[in-house]
Write a structure and sequence with these properties.
Elements (H helix, E strand, L loop, with lengths): L2 H8 L1 E5 L9 H11 L3 E4 L9 H18 L3 E4 L2 H6 L4 E4 L6 H8 L3 E6 L2 H9 L4 E4 L18 H8 L6 E4 L4 H9 L4 E4 L1 H4 L4 H18 L1
Parallel strand pairs: 1-2, 1-8, 2-3, 3-4, 4-5, 5-6, 6-7, 7-8
Bound molecules: 4-methyl-5-hydroxyethylthiazole phosphate, 2-methyl-5-methylene-5H-pyrimidin-4-ylideneamine and magnesium ion.
2-methyl-5-methylene-5H-pyrimidin-4-ylideneamine binds next to strand 5 and strand 7.
């Protein structure tokens, strides 16, 4: 997939699993986020009471159907086999998952996202065929219990200053108020869990965050 298309998808990126949806249910939240204009959805079912087996498969298929109806790409976190089983639009993998080159061989030209925390991890992931890099946690987060240390937006500047010009999405503690500074630091978009899944008004939060991202991208 070409880099400009990927950059467009990264602008307002929802990462969601049943574990993150306490106030409401995943389907209601995903519907509201899609109506608010999210540009990419990742199904990330992780944590203590994560769904498994047929319940997990059913939720993945339901969210995939909602995304397809809106023409929004749907990708799966970690589980490459699940992604292939349901013909998802791509996968996101971390440094501790299967290596990117092997995953690329399995998924063909589907979207491949890789988490990176340093310039060298970023370079390596790109050499292995990643379409975009997930960079963070930018700010403190309560949605990932094994998150690396908080890096601030400095990591984004450092990557850009070191010639990493591929599509980047910031993740970790990103709120409506913080979205613009993540873009100013060099990200092509923001990946968000709790600021959306725990929002009082999911639709409006997405609308406002997306417009801040879009305005900042245009000003840059
Ligand atoms: C999956 C992931 N990777 C780095 S931080 C994080 C969690 C982001 O969740 P939130 O947007 O609620 O901080
Ligand atoms: C850990 C992650 C980092 N970045 C993104 C986009 N998704 C993830 N699951
Ligand atoms: Mg992982």
């Amino acid at each position: 997939m070409n880099q400009d298309q990927i950059r467009h998808y990264l602008q307002m990126y929802l990462v969601v699993g049943s574990v993150n949806c306490k106030a409401s249910d995943p389907i209601t939240i995903v519907k509201a986020a899609l109506s608010g204009g999210v540009t990419l959805v990742q199904f990330r079912e992780k944590g203590a009471d994560a769904l498994q087996g047929t319940e997990l498969l059913r939720l993945a298929l339901q969210i995939q159907a909602l995304c397809r109806a809106e023409g929004v790409p749907f990708i799966i976190n970690d589980d490459v086999d699940l992604a292939l089983e349901i013909d998802a639009d791509g996968v996101h993998i971390g440094q501790d998952d299967e290596n990117a080159e092997a995953v690329r061989a399995k998924i063909g030209d589907r979207i491949l996202g890789v988490s990176a925390h340093t310039v060298s991890e970023a370079r390596f992931a790109m050499q292995q065929g990643a379409d975009y890099l997930g960079i963070g946690p930018i700010y403190p987060t309560h949605s990932k219990d094994d998150a690396h240390e908080v890096q601030g937006t400095a990591i984004l500047c450092e990557l850009r200053e070191n010639g990493i010009h591929v599509p980047l999405v910031g993740i970790g503690g990103i709120t409506e108020e913080r979205a613009a500074e993540v873009i100013k630091a060099g990200a092509d978009g923001v990946a968000v869990i709790s600021a959306i899944t725990e929002a009082k008004d999911v639709h409006e939060t997405v609308v406002r965050m997306k417009s801040k991202v879009g305005n900042t991208l245009r000003e840059r």
